[in-house]
Specification:
Number of helices of chain B: 0
Radius of gyration of chain A: 13 Å
Structural class of chain A: mainly beta
Strand content of chain A: over 45%
Number of helices of chain A: 0
Helix content of chain A: under 10%
Order of helices and strands of chain B: EEEEEEEEEEE
Largest sheet of chain A: 7 strands, mixed
Shape of chain B: globular
Strand content of chain B: over 45%
Radius of gyration of chain B: 14 Å
Order of helices and strands of chain A: EEEEEEEEEEE
Oligomer: heterodimer
Chain lengths: 115, 113
């Protein structure tokens, strides 16, 4: 069964550094998402992406965050200048249709630790 | 906010018993979805129920939806140790441009052998 893959599985970075989290969504999916989960807490929406542009973003997704689909397969989340509070699990997801009509398929996440 | 809230936050039962988890939400929806998350892993979709459906089954899972009360329940029958996980409900929103699912806090389910 096709799956969403995320790399790296764990990233440690120093405060103020830039990080890029990478995702390969399921190949025929058109909608892409990033979520994050601070340890043991709720899963928070960051951004959704469709037709090569952001379709919706949350308050968390400020100017420090950006997303890109640089080619036909990868979907990346960049944090320009990391803060301690950015430490969390970051999940990428994709779906073939919008969330009103189809489930999301999640990767296993990247654990980001900011020191 | 359309955020769902699960109840209870944690549930511990014996293997073989049934587990019921509840979810309440605030806004009108097109659908409500349930996901499972094993510790340290991504979320796995379990079942999607549309706003015009009242009940849906998938194997040992039974989901109900009451749009008048803005609530849903997930029943796992004949629980197994492998069902130990966190369970989340997620809702979309019936408003233009809604391109996200909003997840609740989750119920942490422990099945004791």
């Amino acid at each position: 069964e096709p799956e969403v893959t995320q790399t790296p599985s764990h990233q440690v970075t120093q405060m103020g550094q830039e990080v890029i989290l990478r995702c390969v969504p399921i190949s025929n999916h058109l909608y892409f998402y990033w979520y994050r989960q601070i340890l043991g807490q709720k899963v928070e929406f960051l951004v959704s992406f469709y037709n090569n542009e952001i379709s919706e973003k949350s308050e968390i997704f400020d100017d420090q965050f950006s997303v890109e689909r640089p080619d036909g397969s990868n979907f990346t989340l960049k944090i320009r200048s990391t803060k301690l509070e950015d430490s969390a699990m970051y999940f990428c997801a994709s779906s073939d249709r919008g969330p009103q009509r189809s489930p999301l398929h999640f990767g296993n996440g990247t654990r980001l630790t900011v020191t | 906010s359309q955020q769902g809230e699960e109840d209870p936050q944690a549930l511990s039962i014996q293997e073989g018993e049934n587990a019921t988890m509840n979810c309440s939400y605030k806004t009108s929806i097109n659908n409500l979805q349930w996901y499972r998350q094993n510790s340290g892993r991504g979320l796995v979709h379990l079942i999607l129920i549309r706003s015009n459906e009242r009940e849906k089954h998938s194997g040992r899972l039974r989901v109900t939806l009451d749009t008048s009360k803005k609530s849903s329940s997930l029943l796992i029958t004949a629980s197994r140790a492998a069902d130990t996980a966190s369970y989340f409900c997620a809702t979309d929103g019936v408003f233009q441009g809604a391109q996200k699912l909003v997840f609740g806090q989750g119920t942490r389910l422990t099945i004791n052998p």
